[in-house]
């Protein structure tokens, strides 16, 4: 079973939306698990403090290295084979290749930051891989972690069933996906491209390929020539 362990100050956020739909069915069927670990269990003192003011001054609070290390060591003791990730806008942007690699492993341990972020020393001391979900700033790592888990879980064998047409999706082959259409044939005066209604599978495949290339060239030329 593929195991996800998000470390968070808000364990109630998990599995959240991933408890519904196909991902949720996957949990119910034992294909994967999502067991959040409450960082606050390792908070210090009567108030279970997990953060402190930034060394050098400045706004906001920083999550303490000692608290986070204790939480990581308890949630994923030495010998746990899963990669340890830190959701972070400074990380390498998540892509489908990394998602596929994570999905084919034993699972993930994911530290979700809050406040201004985490003490730099715990990143090195626990070999955390920083992962970003895009060039924007969230209020915490939980929503970023949910996005990462969603992307991984839908690739697990049995989770998506026939719905997953893996080979033709966006990013497979380094291209964005071609456009989709379904009934009705006429929508507010807009037709379905005739080639899709002709039943010639060779022509349909060629049209989809050309559309995928056109859309990728227009919107994400940086993807062309990159390996999905
Ligand atoms: N002060 C930080 C932002 C902290 S946001 C900075 O300027 O870089 C608080 C937490 O939200 C982060 O520790 C991280 O866990 C999470 N987070 C915010 N944006 C993210 C993103 N784009 N990708 C992944 N995690 C993100």
From TrEMBL:
Residues annotated as domain tRNA methyltransferase TRMD/TRM10-type: 7-224
Reactions catalysed: guanosine(37) in tRNA + S-adenosyl-L-methionine = N(1)-methylguanosine(37) in tRNA + S-adenosyl-L-homocysteine + H(+)
Which of UniProt's keywords are assigned here? Cytoplasm, Methyltransferase, S-adenosyl-L-methionine, Transferase, tRNA processing
Q: Which GO biological process annotations does it have?
A: tRNA N1-guanine methylation
Claim: Ligase is one of the keywords in the record: no
Single annotated GO MF: tRNA (guanine(37)-N1)-methyltransferase activity
EC number, UniProt record: 2.1.1.228
Can you tell which superkingdom this protein's organism belongs to? Bacteria
One GO cellular component, as annotated: cytosol
Q: What class of enzyme is it?
A: transferase
Q: Where does this one sit in the cell? A: Cytoplasm
Q: State the InterPro entries in the record.
A: Alpha/beta_knot_MTases, tRNA_m1G_MeTrfase_C_sf, tRNA_m1G_MeTrfase_TrmD, tRNA_m1G_MTases_N, tRNA_MeTrfase_TRMD/TRM10
Q: What is its main location?
A: cytoplasm
Q: Which residues bind S-adenosyl-L-methionine?
A: 113, 133-138
What Pfam families has UniProt attached to this entry?
tRNA_m1G_MT
PANTHER family, per this entry?
A: TRNA (GUANINE-N(1)-)-METHYLTRANSFERASE
Spell out the family assignment given in the record's similarity comment: Belongs to the RNA methyltransferase TrmD family.
Function of this protein? Specifically methylates guanosine-37 in various tRNAs.
Give the multimer and partner information: Homodimer.
Q: Which protein, by its recorded name, is this?
A: tRNA (guanine-N(1)-)-methyltransferase
Source species of the chain: Lichenibacterium minor
């Amino acid at each position: 079973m593929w195991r996800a362990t998000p470390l968070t100050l808000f364990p109630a956020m998990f599995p959240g939306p991933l408890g519904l739909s196909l991902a949720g069915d996957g949990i119910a069927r034992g294909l994967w698990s999502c067991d959040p670990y409450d960082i606050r269990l390792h908070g210090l003192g009567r108030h279970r403090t997990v953060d402190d003011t930034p060394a050098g001054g400045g706004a906001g609070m920083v999550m303490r290295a000692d608290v986070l290390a204790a939480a990581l060591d308890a949630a994923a003791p030495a010998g746990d084979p899963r990669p340890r990730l830190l959701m972070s806008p400074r990380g390498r942007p998540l892509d489908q290749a990394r998602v596929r690699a994570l999905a084919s492993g034993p699972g993930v341990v994911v530290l979700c930051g809050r406040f201004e972020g985490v003490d730099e020393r715990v990143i090195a001391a626990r070999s955390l891989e920083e992962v970003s979900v895009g060039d924007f700033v969230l209020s915490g790592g939980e929503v970023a972690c949910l996005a990462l888990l969603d992307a991984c879980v839908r690739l697990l064998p049995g989770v998506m069933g026939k719905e997953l047409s893996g080979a033709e999706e966006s990013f497979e082959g380094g291209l964005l996906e071609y456009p989709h259409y379904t009934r009705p044939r006429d929508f507010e005066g807009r037709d379905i491209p005739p080639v899709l209604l002709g039943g010639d599978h060779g022509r349909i495949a060629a049209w989809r390929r050309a559309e995928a290339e056109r859309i990728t060239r227009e919107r994400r030329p940086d993807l062309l020539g990159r390996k999905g």
